[in-house]
Amino acid sequence: xxxxxxxxxxxxxxxxxxxxxxxxxxxxxxxxxxxxxxxxxxxxxxxxxxxxxxxxxxxxxxxxxxxxxxxxxxxxxxxxxxxxxxxxxxxxxxxxxxxxxxxxxxxxxxxxxxxxxxxxxxxxxxxxxxxxxxxxxxxxxxxxxxxxxxxxxxxxxxxxxxxxxxxxxxxxxxxxxxxxxxxxxxxxxxxxxxxxxxxxxxxxxxxxxxxxxxxxxxxxxxxxxxxxxxxxxxxxxxxxxxxxxxxxxxxxxxxxxxxxxxxxxxxxxxxxxxxxxxxxxxxxxxxxxxxxxxxxxxxxxxxxxxxxxxxxxxxxxxxxxxxxxxxxxxxxxxxxxxxxxxxxxxxxxxxxxxxxxxxxxxxxxxxxxxxxxxxxxxxxxxxxxxxxxxxxxxxxxxxxxxxxxxxxxxxxxxxxxxxxxxxxxxxxxxxxxxxxxxxxxxxxxxxxxxxxxxxxxxxxxxxxxxxxxxxxxxxxxxxxxxxxxxxxxxxxxxxxxxxxxxxxxxxxxxxxxxxxxxxxxxxxxxxxxxxxxxxxxxxxxxxxxxxxxxxxxxxxxxxxxxxxxxxxxxxxxxxxxxxxxxxxxxxxxxxxxxxxxxxxxxxxxxxxxxxxxxxxxxxxxxxxxxxxxxxxxxxxxxxxxxxxxxxxxxxxxxxxxxxxxxxxxxxxxxxxxxxxxxxxxxxxxxxxxxxxxxxxxxxxxxxxxxxxxxxxxxxxxxxxxxxxxxxxxxxxxxxxxxxxxxxxxxxxxxxxxxxxxxxxxxx
Length: 763
Hints:
This protein is an alpha/beta fold. Among the domains are: 1-35; 387-600, Rossmann fold (3-Layer(aba) Sandwich); 647-761, Immunoglobulin-like. Helix content is 32%, strand content 17%. The protein is built from 22 helices and 27 strands. It has a six-stranded mixed sheet, with helices on both faces. Strands 4-3-2-1-10 form a five-stranded parallel sheet. A five-stranded mixed sheet has the order 19-27-26-21-22, with no helix packed on it. The longest helix is centred in the N-terminal third of the chain and has 35 residues, at 4-38. The chain is globular and about 80 Å long.
C-alpha cells in the first residue's frame, strides 16, 4: 500500500489539474463565444490586423490613422511601441473609445533582451547552457512586460548552414537538436508555466516557420527548396520543439516552401503545424509577408489575403490585406465566415489567456519600470552570461589570460564604440549606456597600467559599405584621416606596448536582417591593419567581433590568440575584460562551422557521405569528393572551443553493446581537468546510424552536458541512449528507428571524439 499511495496521489493531482484546465478552457470558450456574437464582421476582421504604427520601424511600410482605426475596431494589436505610458494611452483608446472595448495586444522584437541586452542569439547558443539561456529570456520578459509589452517575436529557431545569410546571427546555428533545446529554454523563460498568471509572463512567438535559414545563395528572403524528408530530418525539429513547449504563437516565414510562400501554404500552416503537431495558438505573418506574395507571383492583394487566411494565418502584420479585402472575398465566396471566425477566435483567446479582458492595463503598471529595467542585478547576470558565450579559437603558448600589469595596446575600429556592443536586433536598448571596450579594460586594470589606444583603420575602405553596415544608430564614427595616417598611429602605439589587442571584425549591423554578405573575410582595411600589427613581432590577440562565421585561415595561421566575442550585449565590454584577465575561463563552443574559405559553403558537421568519400586525413584524391585547392575540413568544427585549462577524455564505456526498442543503454566517459585552471567543458554526444533504409548523416548531436571541474579533478559523465533518440523520418516520412549497427561518439567537439559501437535489435 505504501508503494501504491504516491501513485494514487499523483493520479489524483493530475486529474484535478486536468479538470481545472478543462474548466478554464470552458470558461474562455463561453466568454469568447458571447463576445463574438456581439461583434460585427468588420470588428472580427479588425482583430486580425496587426499594425506597425510604433516608434521602431523594422520594414519598409508603416500604417497610418492608427488611433481612428483602433476606435472603429480595425486593429487587433500593435508592435514596436516603446514606453509604458504610450502603450497605456493607446490601450485606453481601445477599451474606452471603441464600441466593444476589446483590448489590444502589444508586441515587440525582444530578441536577446530588452534594455538589458544579452549576447546575440548565435553567441548565446555557444554557451550551451540552457539555464543561462532561459534566464536571459526570463529577464527580457520581466523588463519588456514592465514597459507594456506582452508579446515578443522570439525565439528565432531557423537552422542555418550558410554564414552568408545575415540572420544566422539571430538563430542558434546549424544543429536542429541543439536548436530545439534552446527553443524550449527560451519559451519557458518568456512564458514560464504558460498560465500567464503573473504580469511578468509574456507570450512567445517562434519564427520563422519554416526553413527561412536555407535561402539560395545565402541571400535574405530568397527562394528555399528542399525535399520534405530533408525538411523533417534537418530543419523542422526546432519549430516542433517550440510547439511541444507550448509556444503561444508562430510567425510565418518570408520564403516559399514546396513552391508555395509560407504565408499561403496550407500544408505547412494547417496540416503540419495544427493537425500533425497539435498547435493551438495563433499564427501571425511576418512584416508585409502576405502582400509580398504578390511579388512571388501568387496573385493580387485580395487573392493572396484570401489564400493566407485559408492556409491558417490568423493575423496580418502591416499588409492590411485582411482589413481591406476579406469582406469582398467573403462576398465572392473565396472564403467563408467560418474562416474569419476561426482566426478571430484565436486572437481573442490569446488576449483572454493573457488576462487582458480582466485587466487591459495588466502590463501598464508604470511603477514597475524603474524597479525592473536595466537593474544592476540584471546587468550582472548579462555580464556573466556574455562571458560564457565567448569562444576561444586559438591560444598559442598560453598567451591568454593576460597580466593586468602588462603594457597593452588596444587597436581597431571596434575598440572604442559604444553603440555596437549590444549587437543587431537590440531595438529597445539605449545605445548610450554600454561601456566601450577601452573603458572596460582601463577600469579592469585600474592604476596598475594604462591601455594605449589607436583606431588603426576604419571598418572598411568603402565608405558606402560602412554606411550600410552601421545603420540604426550604430555609427563607428568614420575617421577622415588617411589609411596611412591611421596605420602609422597604430604601429607607434603598438611599439610602446608588450601585447596588442586587435578589436576587429564586423560592425553589429553587418549581420542581421537584410545583411547578407558574399565575402566572409574580415573587411579589407582591418585585414591590412592586422597584418601590419603581426609584422611588429609583438604578441597579438585578435578580439573578433562578428555575427556569423568568418573565413579566418590567415588569421589562424599568423595570430597568436583569437577570442571570438560575437556581440555580447549591453555588458559585452566588461565580460571581455573578465575573460582576457582570467577572472572567467572561456567555455563557449561553436554552434556553427567556420569554413577555411568561402567556396566550402555550405559546410556543416552533420552532412551525409557521398558514394566516393575522401579518406580521413587526405586532402585530395582523384575521383573522390574533394576540391583541387582546399581540403574538405573545417577551420573550426561545430562544437569547437578552447579553454585556459585542458581536458582529457577516457575511452567510452557502454553498459551494453546491444539494446532493443524497449530498453536503453548508458554511454560513459571519465573527464579529467588536466590543466592548472578551473574550467567548464561541454561534453558532446553524437550518434551515427551506420546502415539505414535511406542515407543517414555521418553523425548527429544527441546530447550534451556542461561540466565544471577544478584543476586536477575528474568526473564520470554519462548519457542514456534510447531507441527514441535513434528515430528519423524515412522515405515515407514515418518517424522510425531501424535495427542495425550504430556508432556512438563522445568528445570535446564534433571532430575530436572517442568512439564505440552498439547494435539496436528487434524486440
